[in-house]
Input
Amino acid sequence: MLDTTSKTFKTRELTDGYGNADLENSTAMFGRLAESNAMAQIMYGLALRHGWGISPDPPLAITYLSQAASNSAAVESAALSSGMKKGGAAKGELVLAIYELANSFRHGWGVGKDPVAARSYYETAANLGDTDAMNEVARCYEEGFGGKKDRFMAAKYYRLAEQNGNKTLGNSW
Output
C-alpha cells in the first residue's frame, strides 16, 4: 500500500519547479517518488505522456497512470473496509488517475484509441465526483462517442457537473 501523505513528498518544491519551468528537475523528483506515491505516479505519468522535462514515452505513461489508479484503489478499499464512509486520503489520486487514463484512451496516447474504454473511464471518474469527467462523459453521451447517443444521460451529467460547480459556458441542459 502506498503512503499518500508521506513527508518525503515535497509537493510545494515539485509544483514550484513546474511553475518556474524547471521541468527536468521536477520531473526527475516525481520519477524518484513514483516508487511509493500515487500522486507522483500521476505527475510522472503525465510528464512522460506529454514530454514535460523528459523525453515522451506515452506507453510508459500508461504504466504509471495505471499503477496510480491501482494503488489508490487499494488505499481507498482499505479505508472503506475500516468503516470510513467517504473513503480515505487517496480518493483524489484515484479519480485523477482514472480521468487521465480516459484521456489516454480517447486520444490514443500510449494505447490504441478506444472510445468505449474512454467513456467507461470518464463515467467511473464522474461517478466518483470528478466534475471534468462529468462534462466529458456527458459529451460522450451527447455525441455517441464510445456507445449510443443518449441525450438523457448527457443532460444528467451536464447538470451534475453544474450542480458541483463546473458550469460549461453556453450549456443550457
